[in-house]
UniProtKB/TrEMBL annotation:
Signal sequence, renumbered to the chain: none
Family membership: Belongs to the Dps family.
Keyword annotations: DNA-binding
Entry's Gene Ontology molecular function annotations: DNA binding; ferric iron binding; oxidoreductase activity, acting on metal ions
Taxon lineage: Bacteria, Pseudomonadati, Pseudomonadota, Gammaproteobacteria, Pseudomonadales
Family matches, as SUPFAM superfamilies: Ferritin-like
PROSITE patterns the UniProt entry points to: DPS_1, DPS_2
Stored InterPro entries: DPS_DNA-bd, DPS_DNA-bd_CS, Ferritin-like, Ferritin-like_SF, Ferritin_DPS_dom
PANTHER family on file: DNA PROTECTION DURING STARVATION PROTEIN (PTHR42932:SF3), GENERAL STRESS PROTEIN 20U (PTHR42932)
A family per Pfam: Ferritin
Protein name, per record: Starvation-inducible DNA-binding protein
Segments forming domain Ferritin/DPS: 17-155
Length: 156
């Protein structure tokens, strides 16, 4: 059945493609944050263990919201590690970083998600796609706040 929501097929496709990149970045950041939750050690263990859990729990909800927006636009959401690896710009974790390195890497990941969301705004604005604009604004606000909180843990 044809989707008739006031956007062209090309506009919907372009937005869905951008949201797919946002989904891949968000899922990769979720996995990295969950990994760090499990493997953090050191004097900041309890604080970071709890902070990472809060962040990955929020990301779990976010990936669902992003995928459902892709579906509402009429496209299939990517849903495999292989697809995410092709789409994401967040580096997959290797090795066992220190707690401070975990914080620094998560700052970069949070900032990357903000940039990915921001890159989608021209297409969203052109299509007058307010629901996606709202989703992007919310994601950016959360990731900017998370990056600030993580950065604050690194300051002395």
């Amino acid at each position: 059945m044809k989707i008739d929501i006031g956007m062209s097929d090309a506009q919907r496709q372009k937005i869905a493609d951008g949201l797919s990149r946002l989904l891949a970045d968000s899922y990769t950041l979720y996995l990295k944050t969950h990994n760090y939750h499990w493997n953090v050690t050191g004097p900041m263990f309890n604080t970071l263990h709890t902070m990472f859990e809060t962040q990955y729990t929020e990301l779990a909800i976010a990936v669902d919201d992003i995928a459902e927006r892709i579906r509402a636009l009429g496209f299939k959401a990517p849903g495999s590690y292989r697809e995410y690896a092709k789409l994401t710009r967040i580096e997959e974790e290797e090795g066992h970083p220190s707690a401070e390195e975990m914080l620094a890497r998560l700052v970069k990941g949070q900032e990357r998600v903000v940039k990915t969301a921001r890159e989608l705004f021209p297409a969203v604005d052109e299509a007058n796609d307010e629901p996606t604009a709202d989703l992007l604004t919310q994601r950016m606000q959360i990731h900017e706040k998370n990056a600030w909180m993580l950065r604050s843990m690194l300051e002395s």
